[in-house]
Write a structure and sequence with these properties.
Layout: H1 11-17, E1 28-37, E2 40-48, E3 66-72, E4 80-87, E5 94-96, E6 102-106, E7 109-118, E8 123-130, E9 138-139, E10 153-156, E11 162-166, E12 204-208, E13 221-223, E14 225-226, E15 244-251, E16 254-260, E17 267-272, E18 279-286, E19 297-301, E20 304-311, E21 323-329
Parallel strand pairs: 14-18
Antiparallel strand pairs: 1-2, 2-3, 3-4, 5-7, 6-7, 7-8, 8-9, 10-11, 11-12, 12-13, 15-16, 16-17, 17-18, 19-20, 20-21
The structure holds beta-L-arabinofuranose.
Length: 346
């Protein structure tokens, strides 16, 4: 929901109408990546703080410095905050802005994947490992080779392959990599370097990971999203095109790629028969939340599906002080996801 409409909101009334409440209230958390490990739900969120940086269209106000892991025995239970799991001061290659992370498990090792700006101000994606889902995590000394942009989401397929989906436009810098190398020209506007409105939209990226999950096993490929006529979504189709917040889940053998549309504030999804796509646009999962950003994950627990998401209700609309929430997600008989409105009408 855009900032300028926030001043008219009665937050006590809006928070009463919210379909779910923050999982924790003692810290601000956002961008929840949820996984079930050993029968328990673990949530890997951003840890929002007010670092004093002014709001701008490149997200400078998202100046996060560390990660906490949350866990829940079930979506109905209280969430536990396991405390700091990784701090930016311990990541040699990173300088600032620890944005949306994700996690994976392989052979008893837990991997935390996270974006941050390097010492040249370029977003890269790093990995840190630990022997517990709650950390602490020890970072690799360098970011993943040839990584760029933000919002890693790591998906384990049924054949044991792991894929990383990632990318984000505007402050996430994806548009600055259009030629294959970083465009270092001064960024006067978040839309500089983007395709024109009548050109195919910039795509999220996907790369299979190496067996040790520490590097890309291949050059990242485009996650192409097609419309109902088989044509790529256009950059000007702001209600549908990819902006940031990639997530992948599999349902009834189909690959569901979901993402945020950023400046139009929707969580949408597209379906394919394989992890690389092309994907066909299906519709909306989540209508706009209070706060500029929307970011989610989808996970199955005890034969039900859940949407983890965030809003800025607790902070009364402060864009960079968000709270993670969870609600059930349902499908129709054809596998279409029922669209969720995060606030009841009364
Ligand atoms: O939390 C910082 C950024 O805001 C994330 O990386 C984006 O997805 C958006 O939620």
């Amino acid at each position: 929901m855009p900032e300028d409409s926030i001043e008219h909101i009665d937050f006590s009334e809006l928070n009463r109408r919210a379909i779910s409440q923050p999982l924790v209230k003692h810290i601000y958390t956002a961008d929840p990546s949820a996984h079930v490990f050993n029968g328990k739900i673990y949530i890997y969120p951003s840890h929002d703080i007010d670092a004093g940086d002014a709001f701008d269209d490149l997200g400078s106000h998202f100046a996060m410095e560390d990660y906490h892991v949350l866990s829940m025995d079930s979506p109905a239970d209280e969430a536990t905050d396991h405390g700091p799991a990784l701090h930016i001061k311990d990541v040699p290659w990173a300088s600032k802005q620890m944005w949306a992370p994700d996690a994976a498990e392989k052979n008893g090792t837990y991997y935390l994947f996270f974006p941050a700006k390097d010492h040249d101000g370029i977003f890269r994606i790093g990995v840190a490992t630990g022997n517990s889902p709650t950390g602490p995590f020890t970072p690799q000394p360098q970011a993943i080779k040839n990584s760029f942009s933000i919002d890693p989401a790591v998906f384990k397929d049924e054949d044991g392959s792991y894929y990383m989906y990632f990318g984000g436009i505007w402050g996430g810098q994806l548009q600055r990599w259009r030629t294959g190398s970083f465009n270092a020209a001064e960024e006067k506007s978040p839309v500089a370097h983007l395709p024109a409105d009548d050109e195919p939209a910039l795509c999220a990226k996907v790369a299979r990971l190496t067996n040790d999950l520490l590097e890309f096993a291949e050059a990242p490929k485009d996650v192409m999203i097609l419309d109902e006529n088989g044509k790529p979504l256009l950059q000007g189709n702001n209600d549908r095109r990819f902006f940031e917040a990639s997530w992948m889940h599999k349902y009834n053998g189909k690959y569901y790629f979901s993402y945020s549309t950023g400046d139009t504030h929707y969580i949408c999804y597209a379906i394919a028969d394989n992890p690389y796509g092309p994907f066909t646009y299906q519709g909306r999962i989540l209508e706009p939340v209070v706060g500029w950003t929307s970011h989610h994950s989808i996970c199955e627990f005890n034969d039900k599906w859940y949407l983890f998401y965030h809003d800025s209700g607790l902070s009364e609309g402060v864009t960079h002080l968000r709270s993670v929430k969870v609600t059930e997600l349902t499908y129709d008989a054809a596998g279409k996801i029922h669209t969720i409105n995060p606030y009841r009408s009364k």
